[in-house]
């Protein structure tokens, strides 16, 4: 439990600081680019994200699980996985380049996408190194490296604004960040965790790919919440994609917390359940689901009442039409908050079942987007994203409750919903305030309501104190 708290706290501090920096710089960048160029930039990001799912083929999750269960094999997994990822990166870069070459994109967009392909190869090489670090539950290392690479990202975006660069310059950012990550993680892993050397063990490769099939399908199917940004420019326009790209940044910014929790819980569940320690796993699942529900409710309530103010404040009046999509996307990421603990557990223990559920979500998402976006535009893309996350939440939670670990669930919504209602009424009354004061007031009122309702337990404070007490040594065996 303490290891999880320490890992989450380390990543949380890093991600909060970098999220604030990147978000503020990103909003200035979007205003500088305007809706149409922002839509083109969003297309680059969508290609990189979607191909990032494909290039890994889910093997990172598999390797984390295997190393968590048997750390003595870390060097073997790292050496072979690194070669596999390099070859996959080259292969998918060529596929991306072929799509771009045959597509009807503006010349500047084509050139930028070719550069993005190089970033794809470099980012694929970071995955094996991060898998080893995750498998050893040394997430504080990832926190430190993430902080530095986020500063590199922010500085390059600022340079683009200051020197009036276009999306071709921005296309170099993923490659620069990934190159730093490869060097930093490579040195740290080689010196502090396991020696690195290239390995080509063909029988082991075949075994890896056989084990990896459910993880591969799950990873590919997980593009359901990113596919809309790829098809929007083709079915509507770059301007609408610019609106969607701008407010989707709230998803990216807020989703860091579920990503942090998932990164800490996934190897933990794999380790504990492989040892048969089900009660401890149940306790952790219950506690972190409760925390995530408490965080999700105020996000949705606040976004509903403040969507227009937030959109105009951060992106300017030109992006005001994107306000409804902002609330829908924040509501969607709030649902992700709620089911991320069960997501970590089901992927660890019932990967095939998770693959079936996520595959159904992808079919649902893609079908509705292709059917409705041409007529209704980017707002419906946000609605479909919200519906897709609801499918994931319901499907994953039912499976975990019935097939893996039953745990208290619905009762955890009662007090956060009451506190959220109080917060909503307060935001209506205080609607004359500016967005910053409104956000602060809403947060204070929600937190005070939870305290008065007795939501927090003594062990919550004990866990928090232990997690931030870095002088206390951990057993990392």
UniProtKB/TrEMBL annotation:
Stretches that traverse the bilayer: 7-26, 38-57, 78-101, 113-133, 145-163, 169-188, 208-227, 247-266, 287-307, 319-342, 354-372, 378-399, 406-429, 435-456
Topology in membrane: Multi-pass membrane protein
Organism this protein belongs to: Candidatus Doudnabacteria bacterium RIFCSPHIGHO2_12_FULL_48_16
Superkingdom: Bacteria
Record carries keyword Plastid: no
GO cellular component: plasma membrane
Pfam families linked: Polysacc_synt (PF01943)
Alphabetical UniProt keywords: Cell membrane, Membrane, Transmembrane, Transmembrane helix
Primary localization: membrane
Name of the protein: Uncharacterized protein
UniProt-annotated location(s): Cell membrane
């Amino acid at each position: 439990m303490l290891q999880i708290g320490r890992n989450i706290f380390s990543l949380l501090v890093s991600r909060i600081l970098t999220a604030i920096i990147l978000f503020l710089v990103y909003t200035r960048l979007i205003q500088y680019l305007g809706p149409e160029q922002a839509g083109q930039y969003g297309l680059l990001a969508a290609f990189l994200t979607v191909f990032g799912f494909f290039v890994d083929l889910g093997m990172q999750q598999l390797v984390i699980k295997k190393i968590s269960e048997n750390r003595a094999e870390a060097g073997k997994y790292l050496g072979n996985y690194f070669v596999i990822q390099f070859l996959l990166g080259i292969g998918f870069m060529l596929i991306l380049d072929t799509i771009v070459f045959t597509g009807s994109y503006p010349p500047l967009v084509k050139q930028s996408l070719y550069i993005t392909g190089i970033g794809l190869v470099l980012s694929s090489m970071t995955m094996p190194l991060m898998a080893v670090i995750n498998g050893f539950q040394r997430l504080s290392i990832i926190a430190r490296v993430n902080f530095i690479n986020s500063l590199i990202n922010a500085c390059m975006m600022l340079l683009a604004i200051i020197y009036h660069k276009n999306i071709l310059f921005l296309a170099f950012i993923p490659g620069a960040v990934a190159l730093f990550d490869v060097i930093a993680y490579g040195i740290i892993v080689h010196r502090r965790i396991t020696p690195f050397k290239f390995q080509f063990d063909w029988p082991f490769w075949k075994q890896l790919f056989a084990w990896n099939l459910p993880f591969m399908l799950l990873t590919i199917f997980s593009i359901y919440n990113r596919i809309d940004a790829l098809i929007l420019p083709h079915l509507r326009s770059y301007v609408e994609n610019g609106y969607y790209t701008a407010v989707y940044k709230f998803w990216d910014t807020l989703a860091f917390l579920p990503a942090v929790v998932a990164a800490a819980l996934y190897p933990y569940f794999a380790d504990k359940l492989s040892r048969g320690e089900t009660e401890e796993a149940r306790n952790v699942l219950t506690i972190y689901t409760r925390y995530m529900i408490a965080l999700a409710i105020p996000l949705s309530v606040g976004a509903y009442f403040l969507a227009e103010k937030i959109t105009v404040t951060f992106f300017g009046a030109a992006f005001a039409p994107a306000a409804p999509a902002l609330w829908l996307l924040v509501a969607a990421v709030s649902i992700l908050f709620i089911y991320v603990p069960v997501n970590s557990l089901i992927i660890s223990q019932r990967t095939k079942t998770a693959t079936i559920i996520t595959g159904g979500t992808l079919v649902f998402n893609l079908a509705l987007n292709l059917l409705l976006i041409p007529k209704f535009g980017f707002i419906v893309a946000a609605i479909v994203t919200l519906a897709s996350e609801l499918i994931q939440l319901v499907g994953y939670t039912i499976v975990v409750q019935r097939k893996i670990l039953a745990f208290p669930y619905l009762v955890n919504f009662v007090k956060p919903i009451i506190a959220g209602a109080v917060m909503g009424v307060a935001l209506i009354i205080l609607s004359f305030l500016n967005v910053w004061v409104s956000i602060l007031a809403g947060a204070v009122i929600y937190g005070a309501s939870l305290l008065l309702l007795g939501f927090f337990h003594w062990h919550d404070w004990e866990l928090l104190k232990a997690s931030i007490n870095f002088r206390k040594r951990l057993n990392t065996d």
